[in-house]
Amino acid sequence: MSWKEIIKNCLSLASAPIRRNANFFVSMYILGMVSSLITIPKNGTLYENMFLELFLDLYIVSAILAVFPKKVRRGLRAILYIILYVTAAADTYCFVNFGSTLNPSMLMLVGETNSSEASSFLSALISVEVLFSSVGWILLLALLQILIVIFRKRLIKIYVFLVTVLELASLKKRLMAIPRMTAAMPATFGILCLAILITSICTSWHNKEAYHKLMSGRTIGEVEHTLTEKDHAVLYLPIYRLQFSIYANQLAAHQITQLIHAAHEVKVDSCSFRSPNIVLIIGESYGRHHSQQYGYFMETTPNQSALEKSKKLTKFTDVVTCWNLTSFVFKHMLSTYVVGDKGEWCDYPLFPEVFRKAGYNVTFITNEFLPQAKEAVYDFSGGFFLNNPELSKLQFDHRNTELHALDDGLLKDYDDSLKQYKTDHNLTIFHLMGQHVNYKLRYRQSQAKFWASSYEDKRPELTDAQRKVLSHYDNATLYNDSIVAEIVKRFQKEDAVIIYVPDHGEECYEENRGFICRNHSANIDWKLAHYEFEIPFWIYCSKKYIQKHRAIYRQIRAAKDKRMMTDALPHLLLYLAGIETPTYKEENNILSPKYNEMRPRILKNSADYDKLRDEYLKTQAKQEEKKQDKKKDKKQGKKQTKKGVRK
C-alpha cells in the first residue's frame, strides 16, 4: 500500500463519523446553535467557543455511533433525537417562562409535582403562546427532522435528478472536471474535518476538564464552591444543564436522607422554656467594617447604636463566620454540628427540629430561600434542606410563601399572617436579603442618605463610580438598620431575647483591594479573613426579659469580648431555650462557664483565623518597632549635629 493510499484512508477515517451520521450531525449542530442563541439572557453573551466545542461534542458522539451496525445505529440515533429535542424544548420553555434555563431547582420542583400539575405543564407546553415563542423554533426543527426521515428516499431521488440535470446543462469542460472534483472531495472533506477536530480539541480542553471537576464533586456544597472559581465549566448546551441538574439533585438527595435520619433520632429530655420568645435575625453580606457600631466613619447603624447605649443590646467584639458563602454558612449555622466534629453537618440534627420537638412554635420568614424555578445553584445549595417537604415540616410550624423586593415585605408577612400563630413559647427566625449584591436594589431610594460626593474626603483614592457603589452599600446597611429596629420594636414589650447575626462579611473597596462582594476561590490570607469573615453580632434583651432573667443578662454582658465562631450558635440557642438534649454541648455555648473559647476557628476548612490574626499583629508590632527605632536614630543624629555645630 503506497503512502498516498495510507493518507487517503486516514483522511477517510477522519471524516467517517460525520459521513455515516450526516443527517444526525447536521441537524444536531443546528439544534445546538439555535438552543444556545435563543437562551442568551439579557445583557448576556454567547459562549465564545460554542461553535468549535459543539463540533467536538457531536464528532465524539458520531464516532461512537459509527462503531455500531447500521440498524443499531438508526435505533440509537432515534433515542438521541428524542432526548436532545425534548431537553432543548424544556430548556427553552423554562427560559421563556421563568427567565432561567434548566437548573437543579427546576428539577427539584418537577420531582415534587403531582400528576395533575404535570398534565397542566404539558398542556401549557403545547399551547399557542408557547408555539409562537422561542420554543417554536425547537419544535419547528423537530418537525423538519421528522419530515426528512419520512421523505428521505424521495429527497434523495430529487437530489440525484437535480445533479443529473445540472451535469447535462453544463459545458463539456465542466463535465470533464466533475469526476476530478468528485474524486478529490473525500480527501478535502477529511482534511477539513481533521483540522477542525484538532482546533476544537485545543480550544475546548479546558472546559472539558472543568466539567469533569464539576461533575466529580462529592457534595452539593463542593459543587457549588467549584462554580465560584473564575474558570468554572460553561454548561453551554441544554443536555449538559440537565445532566448537571440531575447530578446536583442526587447529591442533595443523599444529604437529605442523612438529615431525615438525624431528625428522627432527635431526643429531648426536658425543656424549661427558659426564654419564652427567642428571635433570630440572620442578615446577609454584612461586613462589620461598615457598621457604625464597630467604628465605621459613616452613621450606618443609628438605631442599633442607640439600643447599645441603652445597654439592652450587647455588642460582641470578636465573632467570625466559618464560611464566606451563604449556603455553607446556613448549613453550619442551622446544624448542631460544629467544625471539628466527626462526620458532616448533615449527620447532626438541625436546631429548629430540636426546638419543635421540645414544644416551641417555630416560624421561618425568609427573603431568599423559597423554592422557585429561577434559582441559582447557590440558592439551591443553601435552600434544598429547608425546602424539602419532609424536612420543612420537621423544622418549621409556619413559613412565609413569597419573596419580596425589599426586606420590609417580611415585616408585612409577619404582621398580616404569621404573628397570629404565636403561642406561649416561640422561636422566630427572620432571614433578610440584607446587603446582598446588587446593593442599589437593597434599599428605598427615598431613604438614601449617602452619595458618591459623601466620600470625596474620606475615600479620595476611589473613582466616582466606585464611590457611588460604596454609597449604595452604606445606604443598604442603613436600610438594614431600620428593618432590624422594626423587628426589635415588635418584641420589645415581650419577654424576649433577640440575636442578630449576618451570614458573612462583604468587601466594598476596602483599603486598596479594588473589588466588591467576596473572593470565594482565593486562599485565605489575613485581609480576606478580616473583611469577609469578621461580622457584627449582638444580643438584645427586652426590659421584661432583663427583669425576669438577670442571671442570663449578666452572662451575656460578661461574654461580649469572648472569641466565637457562628457554627456554635445552635448551642447558645438551646441554652437560652432551656432544652436538655444529648445534642447540646456546653463547651460550645458562649454563655457557659465551660465554654471552650480556645476552640480553633477554622475558616473554610483551611485557615485558622486566630493564627492569621496573631501573625498579622506580630508583623505590625515589628513594623512599629522599626518606625520607633528610625525616629530615635533621627533624634540622635540631630543631637550629634547640634553638638558638632557648638564645638
CATH domain fold name of the largest domain: Alkaline Phosphatase, subunit A
Number of helices: 24
**N-end to C-end Cα span:** 105 Å
- Strand order, biggest sheet? 3-11-8-2-7-5-6
Please state the average pLDDT score: 89
Q: Would you identify the CATH architecture of the largest domain?
A: 3-Layer(aba) Sandwich
Largest sheet: 7 strands, mixed
Helical fraction = 55-70%
Unreliable runs, pLDDT <50, ≥5 residues?
Answer: 178-184
Overall geometry: globular
Q: Tell me the total number of β-strands.
A: 15
CATH class of the largest domain: Alpha Beta
Beta percentage is 5-15%
Number of structural units classed as domains: 3
Rg, nearest Å? 32 Å
CATH homologous superfamily annotation of the largest domain:
Alkaline Phosphatase, subunit A
**Structural class of the helix and strand makeup?**
alpha/beta
